[in-house]
Amino acid sequence: MDFEKLLKELKEEIVADAKDKFGEEGKLIVSDMKDYLKTSEEKLKKWAGLFIAGAIDKDELEWLLKSQKDLLVMKALVKAGVNKIKAGHYKNRVINIVLNKLVGLVVL
Amino acid sequence: MKTLKKTFIAFMAVTLVSCTSLYDHFTYTETIKTKLDAISLIDKSDAPYSDSEVQITDLKNQMKKMVIYEKGKDKNQLTTKMWELISSDKHLMGSYLKLWEEKGSLNTAFKEQAKPQIEEAFNLMIFYEEKKDKQSQNALTQFINQFNL
Which residues form the signal peptide (chain B) (predicted)? Predict the structure, then answer.
């Protein structure tokens, strides 16, 4: 199986389908799906090989593909959460500076 | 004056850590436990579903419990969302159990590929909880310590 060819065809089909169905919004979906294909390339190769060899069936292949998408969603959630914590720390630093000043005034 | 200072610091300490939910040791240990239970079941999933029904029910209940527990915490939408995702019968572990039930048993090659996917999902939740620990709790400790109370 020529996996590079398969991947190229997949990208082209996804781009065409998204543009056709979603117009301008399709660009976001295309970008999302390109990231998915890029970060999943090695796994996709392995899973496609197992499917062709008959070691896994269609439902199992579908579960693996969906799980990869779910993992990308979870990674995005974690990234958002960590950024939120960092933003919270920055706010805390500002509060801390103000507080130190005020406590200094109260004690003096 | 000293009492006023202490009261003021205590008030501000509460304010400081209120941006996101705090590290929760129960969540941390229960996430690790759930991960181990899930992996143990995946290992058995090339055998009949009916052989592991008790363990499967326990895992489903455990995941439901975690969703309810996480929902009950303030400013905890992200962790709740992750638990909902992993336990839903349309995604990750929930859908794995559903597929196993529908098919009776799963291919050995499939379970070997599915296992790292599920492990990674749980690892992300563990990592996130650890981040809360290192950042939020340390911020609170540092803040209080600097006043030598």
Answer: 1-23
B109/A55 CB distance under 8 A:
yes
Tell which B residues from 47 to 106 touch A, by Cβ distance under 8 Å. 78-79, 81-82, 85-86, 91-92, 95-96, 99, 102-103, 106
What is the predicted ipTM?
0.81
Is the Cα torsion angle A43, A45, A46, A51 positive or negative in sign? positive
- Is the pLDDT confidence value at B138 over 60? no
Residues of A in contact with B139 (CB under 8 A): 89, 92
pLDDT in tens, A28-79: 667 777 777 777 888 999 999 999 999 999 999 999 999 998 998 898 889 8
Query: Minimal Cα–Cα distance from A77 to chain B, Å?
Result: 6
| Of B76, B108, B80, B110, nearest in space to B95 by CA | B110
- Beta-carbon contacts of B99 under 8 Å, excluding residues fewer than 6 positions away, are A59, A60, A63, B106
Does the reported pTM lie above 0.90?
Answer: no
Other Cβ atoms less than 10 A from the Cβ of A100: the count is: 13
DSSP string, B113-140: HHHHHHHHHHHHHHHHHHHHIIIIIHHH
